[in-house]
Amino acid sequence: MYVLGAMLVALIAFQPAESVAQKKGKWVSLFDGKSFDGWKKWKGGDISKWKVEDGAMVLTEKGGGDLLTVNQYDNFELEMEWKISEGGNSGVMYHVQEGEKYCCPYSTGPEIQVLDDAKHPDSFAGKEGNHKSGSLYDMLPPNDLKAVKPAGEWNKMRLVINNGKGESWLNGKKVVDFPTKGAEWDAMVAKSKFKTWQGFGNQGKGSIALQDHGDKVWYRNIRIREL
Fold this sequence. Notes:
Blueprint lengths: L1 H12 L3 H5 L6 E2 L9 E3 L8 E4 L2 E4 L7 E3 L6 E9 L4 E8 L14 E5 L39 E8 L2 E6 L2 E7 L3 H8 L16 E4 L6 E10 L1
Antiparallel strand pairs: 1-13, 2-5, 3-4, 4-13, 5-12, 6-9, 6-13, 7-8, 7-12, 9-10, 10-11
């Protein structure tokens, strides 16, 4: 009996660290479908151009400002659904920091693109599709350009940031694998539009941000699990 117990202890001790980390944390809702509790506007101010409609937060017109979670996160698994208007553009950023030297959330936070791939001009910019929905914006394209649903339909996204690795999922498909730090990350940034941006992608912890790019966009069923 003693030998069996010792073997079980040893087995647990030698489990891969990543598998243990995956078990941490419980799912927490970031949006109750009724209010903006737990959210704020970038650098404060009125968010009246963001509305709650049918259980979704909606940017109704340009000038609503970017929304940030009040809480900050380092390693996490994030899920939500989004819907973009025809010809629309938005995005979800992570590890966002506020500060006088930063103009906007994307100064520090890498972005997962939310876009009408069929009609927004940015869909056809960048390199090899790295501006399309689900992409790590301006760095890595999605590996399946058909994973996204068209404007006006709900898409389910999942973003995992854990111990230097990131994953972008779209409608049940993992479309991007990426490093979040280290030499490979630095090389990716150096080839992007962010190469001279002090503070970009190196914060290690920060808020989740939803972008006001001037177009109507919907977000719902937002939840997070810390890892």
